[in-house]
Specification:
Elements (H helix, E strand, L loop, with lengths): L13 E5 L4 H12 L3 E6 L2 H7 L10 E5 L5 H15 L4 E4 L14 H29 L2 E6 L12 H21 L4 E6 L22 H11 L10 H12 L10 E2 L9
Parallel strand pairs: 1-2, 1-4, 2-3, 4-5, 5-6, 6-7
The structure holds nicotinamide-adenine-dinucleotide.
Length: 265
């Protein structure tokens, strides 16, 4: 790589991705591996984690996976522990495990509220805690948390999700003020509609197949932004790579809005 592009390299660094089995997580892990990072991948979905391993075919890096429920602090610590034990240090932590629940505030059951906050907010909190401990020992690091456009722009029926993602932004900023002097940067990405993953949920039939007509209607609504397009997992992975690498060495406590211009803070 030439001098300019080398600031995006992650050679000899270790990255943990929590929630890696998602489309976005997979894209991020592959991007990081392509620029030299050893990656440690955690997710509650063991089947998809195992299936991901084939995708790293040519990458000259090492990949480890661990079934991880991010709502359990001990499991998040074990994920980070695997990274430091196997590779000696942790330089990058991506916290992106997430769930969504569609219901009006008035109809939301306590169990659904608890589940969304446990995964999206407490899970990210635990990921930040574990990462900061490891990165403080190593002397520096970059934490990337997954927020969402929904945390900024109100959408009916997404209260639990929106609250959790707004909380992720607050956590990101507070932690950035606490750990900056230890050379640890903490930033967030707030994507708009990204193809795949949870955006397909409303078009899914009971047998798991996708109603393409309904999906197209959803996509059409999502394209009502200045760029007239939707995002891809690779679009988010590129932003994650920027935040993970030295290319963003002067950024902390920031939210990057990858949303086609749907929302401009
Ligand atoms: N797709 C979008 O349009 C979009 C937009 C903004 C933000 N996001 C965020 O990006 C992230 C990935 O979303 P996606 O659309 O790829 O969805 P997805 O449903 O495919 O991914 C969510 C991932 O989190 C994992 N997960 C759920 N509960 C977990 C737990 N307790 N412990 C560990 N892993 C757990 C799932 O197994 C899955 O791999 C989420 O945080 C989501 O909120 C997505």
């Amino acid at each position: 790589m030439n001098g300019t592009l080398s600031t995006f390299e992650l050679s000899d660094r270790t990255a943990v991705v929590a929630g890696a089995a998602s489309d976005i997580g997979t894209a991020i892990a592959l991007r990081f591996a392509a620029v030299g990072a050893n990656v440690v991948l955690g997710d509650i979905d063991e089947t998809r984690l195992a299936a991901m391993m084939d995708r790293f075919g040519d990458a000259q890096v090492r990949v480890r996976t661990l079934r991880t429920d991010v709502t359990r602090r001990s499991e998040v610590e074990a994920l980070v522990g695997l990274a430091t034990r196997e590779f000696g240090s942790l330089e990058v932590m991506v916290n992106l495990a997430g769930v969504i629940h569609d219901a009006n505030v008035i109809d939301t059951r306590e169990a659904d509220l608890d589940r969304v906050l446990a995964v999206n907010l407490k899970g990210v909190f635990f990921g930040c805690q574990a990462a900061v401990s490891a990165m403080t020992e190593g002397g520096s690091g970059s934490i990337v948390n997954m927020a969402s456009l929904a945390g900024f722009k109100p959408v009916p029926e997404l209260s639990c999700y929106a609250m959790s993602k707004a909380g992720v932004v607050a956590l990101t900023k507070v932690l950035a003020t606490e750990v900056g002097s230890s050379a640890i940067r903490v930033n967030a990405i707030a994507p708009g509609f990204v193809e795949g993953g949870m955006t397909t949920r409303r078009a899914r039939r009971s047998d798991g197949s996708i109603d393409e007509e309904l999906m197209d209607a959803t996509r059409k609504r999502a394209r009502r932004n200045p760029l007239r397009t939707t995002g891809t997992p690779d679009d988010v992975a590129n932003v994650a790579l920027f935040l993970a690498s030295d290319a963003s060495r002067y950024l902390t406590g920031q939210v990057l809005h990858a949303n086609g211009g749907s929302y401009m803070p």
